[in-house]
Amino acid sequence: MTTAAPIAPLAARATGGRRYRQVLWLLTARDLRVRYSTSALGYLWSILDPLVMAAIYWFVFTQVFERSVGEEPYIVFLLAGLLPWMWFNGAVGDSTRAFLKEAKLVRSTKIPRTIWVNRLVLSKGLEFLFSLPVIAAFAIFGGAQLTWGIALLPLAILLQAMLTAGVGLLIAPLVVFFRDLERAAKLVLRFLFYASPIIYSARDLPEGLHAWAAFNPLAGIFALYRSAFFLEELDWYLIGIGAAVSVAMLAVGLLVFRRTERSVLKEI
Fold first, then answer.
1. Burial of 194 (0-12, 13-18, 19+ CB in 10 A)
2. For residue 187, what pLDDT is reported?
3. pLDDT attached to residue 7
4. pTM of the model
């Protein structure tokens, strides 16, 4: 009797966790089907946007102006930052409408409400994973050499998932109370694009700015991605602080989400 008592809660948690993952996958698969079912190009749209952006920046910084930032081949360097940025930007942008867009389902279902944010993080993350062959193709044709840094790819994905989920869980409930936050988030994301080492390397920043850039967790995450082809981009100072900020952001996001959940349900 004494040993059976603690087992019941553990079994309930395991069942609840399995059910959560099943529902999360079903909602994510639904999002992807809806997104691609009405499009002739389907999956290709998920990579066309970053490809066009990369082509524009590549043309400007290699054909129009003399480039002094980044690494060669520059197109691979660009894509290694742009593709994960599209994951972060897309998931955070969609999180501002996570509750408002699905208000009826959020109110009527009893599944944990964090799932409405996490499904966005997962669906955009899957699109990112589907786009990785694009980097591989450009690396082959551009002559980029694969390094042992490729082993750090799972760490980069984990840290980015934590960061993106944390920001999404923070902003999704707040937008319900402050609707202008949706537009403000777009402005912040636009600023963050240029404040993050995407079209340039963190190593290109002046020494004073480099120290502050570490507190942008995307800097360390992008360094991990780029180390797969450019080992000199591996900066453990950026990565260490970026990992700490990502974990802290997830904790803050969960805290804010749990404290505002009941108020959000009343508001929507």
1. exposed
2. 94
3. 61
4. 0.86
Q: Number of structural domains, the chain? A: 1
Structure tokens at 48: 């066309």
pLDDT tens track for 143-153:
888 999 999 99
Note down the domain range covering 118.
41-267
Which pLDDT value is given to residue 144? 86
Q: Is residue 10 part of a domain?
A: no
Is 109 within the bounds of a domain?
yes
Mean pLDDT of 200-211: 82
**159, 157, 176: which is closest to 117 by C-alpha?**
176
Q: Is residue 36 part of a domain?
A: no
DSSP state of 145: P
Please provide the DSSP assignment of 123-183 as one string. Answer: HHHHHHHHHHHHHHHHHHHHTPPP-GGGGGHHHHHHHHHHHHHHHHHHHHHHHHH-TTHHH
Q: Looking at the domain assignment, is residue 33 inside a domain?
A: no
Quickly tell me which residue has 């609707």 as its tokens.
179
Angle between helices 74-95 and 45-59 (to 10 degrees): 130
Note whether 220 and 238 are within 8 A (CB).
yes
